[in-house]
Amino acid sequence: MTKPIVEIQGLRVSFGGTPAVKDVSFAIQPGETVCVVGESGSGKSVTSLSLMRLVEFGGGDILDGRLLLERADGPLDLATAGAATMQDIRGNEIGMIFQEPMTSLNPVFTIERQLTDGLRMHEPLSAAQARTRALDLLREVRIPEPERRLRQYPHELSGGMRQRVVIAIAMACRPRLLIADEPTTALDVTIQAEILALINRLKRETGMAVMFITHDMAVVAQIADRVVVMYQGDVVETGTAAEIFATPKAEYTRALLAAVPRLGEMRGKPAPEPLRLVGDTHDPVPLTPRDTPEPLLEVRNLTTRFPVKGGILRRTVAQVHAVEDVSFTVNKGETLSLVGESGCGKSSCGRSILRLVEPVSGSVYLGGENVLAQTKRDMRAMRRHMQMIFQDPFASLNPYMRLQAQLTEPMQNYGLDNRADRAAALFDRVGLPRSFMRRFPHELSGGQRQRIAIARALAVSPGLIVADEAVSALDVSVQAQVLNLMMELQADLGLSYLFISHDMAVVERVSHHVAVMYLGRIVEIGPRAAVFENPHHPYTQALLQAVPIADPARRKLDTDVSFKPIPSPIHPLDHRPAPSVYDTVGPGHRVIQNSDYA
Amino acid sequence: MHYIANRLLSVAFTLLLISLITFLVTNILPGDVAMVIMGTQSNPEALAGLRESLGLNDPLIAQYGRWITGILTGDWGRSLVFKEAIGPLIADKVVASALIVVMSMCIALAAAIPLGIWAAVHRDKWQDNAASTTALFGVSLPDFFWGIMLILLFARYLGWLPSSGFVHPADDFVAAVRHAFLPSLALGLGLMAHLTRMTRSTMSSILSQEFIRVARAKGLTERTVIWRYALANAIGPVMTVAGLQVGYLFGSIIVIESLFNFTGMGWLTYQALLNRDIPLIQSTVFVIAAVVMLTNLVVDLLYAAVDPRIKLP
Amino acid sequence: MRGFLTAKGIIGGGIVVIVLLTALFAPLLIPDTWATQMDMRARLSGPTLAHPLGTDQLGRDLMYRMLLGAQTSIMIAGTAVLMSLVIGLPLGVISGYFGGWIDNVLMRLVDTLLAFPALLLALTISAVLGPNLTNTIIAIGIAFTPYLARIIRGEALRVAQMPYVEAARAVGTPDTLMIIRHVLPNIMPPVIVQVTISLAFAILAEAGLSFLGLGTQPPDASWGLMIQASRDFLDVAPLTALVPGAAVAITVLGLNMFGDVLRDVLDPRTQ
Amino acid sequence: MKRRDFLKTTTALMGGLAITGTGIGVAHADGHATPVSGGTLIWGHSETTQNLDMHQTGTASTGRLLQNVHESIVTTDKDLNVVPNLASSFEVSQDGLTYTFNLRDDVMFHTGAKMTSADVKYSFERCADPATGATNFEVFNAVESIDTPDDLTVIVNLSTVNAPFLSRLAENGAGVVMPMGSGDTQGDMPVGAGPFKFVRREFGNEVELERFDDYFDGPAYLDKIISREITEPTVRLTGLRTGELHMINDIPLDRMAEFEGNDDFQTVSWFPLNFDFVNFNHDFEPFKDARVRQAFDLMLDKETLMLGALWGQGTTSASPSFPTSASYNGDISQRGQDFERARALLAEAGYAPGELKVVFKVTTNYPYHVDSAQIMLEWFRQGGVDMTIEQLTWSDWLSQVWVDKDFQVTMMNFFTLWEPDFLYYSLYHSTGGFNYRKISEPALDEMLEKARITTDSAARMDIYKDVQTYINENTLDVILWFRNGTIGAQPNVMGLDTVVQPNGSEMNFHKVWLKDA
């Protein structure tokens, strides 16, 4: 066995007295990818920041332990290294990339400056030499038109491009170790696939080691050589990727793996099925669709556009074509998922149906009544029958209202009686103790808040719930619980869901029907099995190809992948898009003829 | 250019509103210009003659029309009490006020930015508290209090700087700066406090951003990280706040200029108000409001110039 | 509430409480003639047994004037800020929450008023109305209104775009209830902080107006008036300015610290 | 107070050197050195000059400066006798209706033109024209015509006798002679025949005057005078202390004691600069009753008030007449403080303690008035009157008190109007131009009208003495004191004893010089 490039021994870190990392030890060998995986609060990021000694800038203190970096003159303990030494090591021997590509680059400096200043810090280069190196780096991370990029500012680049620049910065001095802290979490799935492939390739080509921090077991399965599982500041398990996925030893690892929906595991199943979580005693009951589907929500030719204002008189100069000629039906007791990448119009579509934004044209029938034809007053009455769950459980609850009041408010709005009793019943229904009723939102965890959001939506007994990325912000184990709750409610109450999500694996798990959106249009719609098992539209196929699968045996990223960038949905005022025309390729399975995806 | 044209149009509209407000307010001011001109020696006949010759008997609309036309054509009329032509008079006084406003801004920024950065870098430590308390002390005392103290210290006991008066920078630049220094300092102390707080909060939010960590991860020195990476981002917001404070400064100069006998716009406005010199009040108030507005316009444009994210289409 | 137990919280809160108690009870405990009692043999005197903080140009006791002046200063500042809040809150909330042309019209007006420096506005209003206590309050109150309205509007706009407001709309909450239940409570923390800072500014503004002779009328004591009266005697009797100056400074300092601490305490994220 | 005591006080006030007559005291002046020409005097002037037109300007501060630019047709000597100035001599006809002025032939204007009778006629007519807005236009009310038989003779014909005409011409700019046709530019660029030429004014900041070499009374010593307008007393004082200024006028009252004891500076103090009085609105119901006015008078301890408000820099007086003038009535005296009698008088008039509520309007233009009001307020409250103070800016005071006569009690000062007609007729006649108190006393009106047409000087003065007695007995106003004027200067400023003009309010730099210029 070769000498490890980095060895962490008994690391302890605390923030203002609160322990964040309790006792962490593991090593990274040259040229291997070690994934540190865990949910929020596990201490995985703190560990990586400690290694760079950046944790101090966030108010953390390394209390104990050694961070040995192997160098030509023997191992150096980074935990006690001086500031000058650390500056020399950072960016030179260890490179690091971070989660948020949108904020990782300094908005007021050019790409060139940000690429070269680290280089020139560590190596004696002239400006021209540094520029040449920067160009090479941009080519290496496969950025098109590198000369032009050098002169550009970060806001002129797309998110994926920015993350490539950040990687180029980290790679600038050929580090022996690259630390990647959740580098793909904020990215769309196709871009995530590109970035993962890029990191993989760079590792292969340069022989550097990679320490990859993530919460996503699917990503781990795709890239890890070895895995370190962390939970609440401790390492619970280490092993090779194959070992961890095949024979997890720690109970936590098993629970975590159980909570991860795996793309393709629903193959052949007739209906959505709750996840089987560790500790569940009974087998999950699938949600069988009704024999005779009964339409609840019918959306026809829905179009929503947002004005872009400009000029002296703040007139509308262009339009964002957010939703363009979209039609679909949600049956009673069933779930239709709208799936797509950011900016595809799926959220606008959901909000248009509730008229939280006003559509331009089309019709929306709920139980036979046209939602779009209602007056403002009647619309309020209408909303009783359709409710919404929002993405961010932290922002969608008024921080100054007690939970009970949050639940009774909708009842009060619609003049329902016995509000306290109903609220108590709702607490039971979503699995929260009644003692929480007097609490404020900030006293709850994210999952608990999302339960409250669901309870609030249920308060007026609606038939339809629009769930807009309702589980996206949650840790995977919590996400599984909330998904199970939603499915359970559907089974018990006969609810219909319009489930809006970017996560193909989750969608596969919960949907009866799936609609794939791209640039405001539905490009493919049909029964879940048809869309997932027999995708017709090239975009659907690309999406499915990009989704990482939580199974190290099914790796997809050995070669570079590249997906088409999404064009702008902004068009001049006189733009008249053609109506959507569909081919029927199977029972209820339709594919658009004329999408912009070529 | 659309952005600038758009802003200019709205500025023109606001200026019109300002002129209307100014005119209406000054016309409900009690007191009589003719009276003030004549002082204790006046008598009814002389007053009536004077009123007529000053045009004070015309209807309000006519007086506003005359005034606004004058403003637009460059004929700002004459001060009733001081007999001077208002246009050149104000042009002169604006230079004086601009001198202390700019100097106090420089003094305040020169102190506030390092202090604010220092506090932000050592957030919640004793340095932060020390900086905040120092800054608070500046804002806790009225600026005229500082003014009097500065006169006593620097002019009376140390004899380093002149205690009062204004020298036109075109006549003698060094003397101009020396005369403007104490009033600027008195103004700057209060201003410094706001700007320190602003710099601190802007810098601490910038320092917690990801690109700062990226910069550190590149191995850049702390000095580069803070004074280049962070400050380049803070300068825009700090500038905007500083621009907004110009309004505050133009309020404070009324007191400070009177105290230092520094004959700028503040002094002139106060004299005009005291003497009910309506044409002069109208013009000074109008000019101050216009200068404040235009400063903010310039600051916005500058912000757009330093921040590549804001494009001027 | 833990936030109040920091050094800053204790000092800031302590000062605010002491000043408020002084303003409330000093006039009840100290006969007001003590502040107007003149002693021509002890004019501009330094600290003595009879006058622990010295006397002013008419031989009046500075300590009593400072203590009794607290009420005037606090009352003017408090009422003026309350007035600007009463006007500015509805303006700002309506403007920020409803947006559209109402917002355009109101904010155009507010922006125009903002171009007039507050002290200039107060000075002009004071000159129009004539100098007395009520008019001083009105002048400061009006001058401060556009600032508060602007800040409140910004906060209301921010809150109106929060998901919980959209969520409340989705559950059918009408506009009036929306403002009362969701907008007002959520804009309150920054507004309260702004109010404490405005109070500090109002105390200084009153001092500024008094300095120019348009504030409190003698022989009533206010801190501003005391500083104003001291301007000619500063070099021979610095206490005449230092005593009221220190009172203003400590109060403003306390209010600012209190505001900072309030900001932390009211921020749900720090709880 | 008797006139003799008065003079004694004056001498005491003056400290070292005393110059009899107007009571100017100069400390540390070296009166024996030989004057030299040259140098620029920097004067810290206490007020901002306004309209520079000598006819129009109403403020003493501006007149104080213009005094050096203009010359009057007649002037006064130290004893306040009217003496020739631009006129080499004058004659008054027996009937008192015709005034003949023989002009000097060596008077040059700053324009380079020689003064002729046409200029005099132009100046008088300009002043008399109501459209000019001249503050002294009523001096010429009785003028019927002005004849100029030749270049050096001016004959003024009156329609009715106006005994004070000549002395009014000597005072306050009424008699200044401006070059013909210069009226329109006087406001910006005053030109006259005085010892100094007006060069420029940086408005609110400084005024520059330059020696006029062709001055008829011989050129002045100083090359230039820079008058820096510094209204803030502390700042003015600091300027003198740091040497930025050669001299300042109006040393803050509380500093006089300190300055007089300081060998580094010269101080000049003189009296009277002005007199102060407390005014009642005679139209306000309670003050229609002389007993109420007297009660108020009885509540005031004038000596203490003077010490309190003026820091002793003044002299109490029961009469507003110029103290050294012939009309001064030294036989009347101020009432002493007597609360018992005051309360009794109020009760007699029907006012129980606390029943009378009065507002005291006072202008911030005179900080010592604000102090006085605060001191008086304590006494009035002690006397059972509920009084509040309202501070007014100068323009508010003028418009509310002076024009609208909307007040109950106020306080004012007047520069020493030594011409008794000017003083008493305008202040106390029911139609007087300065009668803002709405005083209407038929007996007094009769005396004042009679004095106007009494050409015998001694008889005229006796009438004015009776007038003073009447005012005092009926407490029409409460006359408080004469206030001292003060100048502080560096030791090298010479000839300070000549600066203050006999009337006590104007300043002339003709004979001032700098020792090491």
Hey, roughly how much beta strand do the residues of chain C contain? under 5%
The tally of beta strands of chain C, per DSSP, is: 0
The strand count of chain B comes to: 0
Over all CA atoms, what is the radius of gyration of chain C?
Answer: 21 Å
**Class by SSE composition of chain C:** mainly alpha
Q: Globular, elongated, flat, extended or rod-shaped: what is the shape of chain B?
A: globular
N-to-C order of helices and strands of chain B: HHHHHHHHHHHH
Percent of residues in helices of chain C: over 70%
What are the low-pLDDT stretches of chain C, counting only 5+ consecutive residues below 50? none
Oligomer: heterotetramer
CATH topology call of the largest domain in chain B? MetI-like fold
CATH class of the largest domain in chain B: Mainly Alpha
The average pLDDT value of chain C, as a whole number, equals 84
Q: With helices defined by DSSP (H or I, 4 residues minimum), what is the helix count of chain B? A: 12
User: Mean of the pLDDT scores of chain B?
Assistant: 82
Question: Structural class from helices and strands of chain B?
Answer: mainly alpha
Task: Figure out the total of helices of chain C.
Answer: 10
Q: Main sheet of chain C?
A: none
Residues in helices of chain B, as a percent range: over 70%
Q: What is the distance, rounded to the nearest whole angstrom, between the alpha carbons of the first and last residues of chain C?
A: 8 Å
Query: What integer value in Å does the Rg of chain B equal?
Result: 23 Å
Structural notes for this entry:
The complex is a heterotetramer of chains A (598), B (313), C (271) and D (517). By secondary structure, chain A is of the alpha/beta class. Chain A contains 19 helices and 23 strands. The longest helix of chain A has 18 residues. Chain B has 313 residues and is mainly α. Chain B has 2 domains: 72 residues, no CATH class; 217 residues, MetI-like (MetI-like fold), CATH 1.10.3720.10. Chain B is 78% helix and 0% strand. In chain B, helix 5 runs antiparallel to helix 6, helix 5 runs parallel beside helix 8 and helix 10 packs antiparallel against helix 12. The termini of chain B are close together. The N terminus of chain D is likely disordered. In chain D, helix 12 packs antiparallel against helix 13 and helix 13 runs antiparallel to helix 14. The chains are: A alpha/beta (598), B mainly alpha (313), C mainly alpha (271), D alpha+beta (517).
Indicate the topology.
The complex is a heterotetramer of chains A (598), B (313), C (271) and D (517).
Chain A lengths: L5 E10 L2 E11 L4 E5 L6 H8 L8 E12 L2 E4 L5 H7 L4 E4 L13 H12 L4 H14 L5 H6 L7 H13 L5 E5 L7 H18 L2 E6 L2 H7 L2 E6 L2 E7 H6 L4 H9 L35 E16 L4 E17 L3 E5 L6 H8 L7 E6 L2 E2 L5 H7 L3 E4 L13 H11 L5 H11 L16 H13 L5 E5 L7 H18 L2 E6 L2 H7 L2 E6 L2 E7 H6 L4 H9 L23 E3 L9 E5 L2 E4 L6
Helix pairs in contact in A: 3-4, 4-6, 6-7, 7-19, 10-16, 13-14, 13-15, 14-15, 15-16
Chain B lengths: L1 H26 L5 H6 L5 H11 L5 H14 L12 H36 L4 H15 L2 H15 L15 H35 L2 H8 L4 H39 L4 H11 L2 H29 L7
Helix pairs in contact in B: 1-12, 5-6, 5-8, 5-10, 6-8, 7-8, 7-10, 8-10, 9-10, 10-11, 10-12, 11-12
Chain C lengths: L6 H23 L3 H4 L25 H37 L1 H16 L2 H12 L3 H28 L2 H8 L4 H37 L11 H8 L8 H28 L5
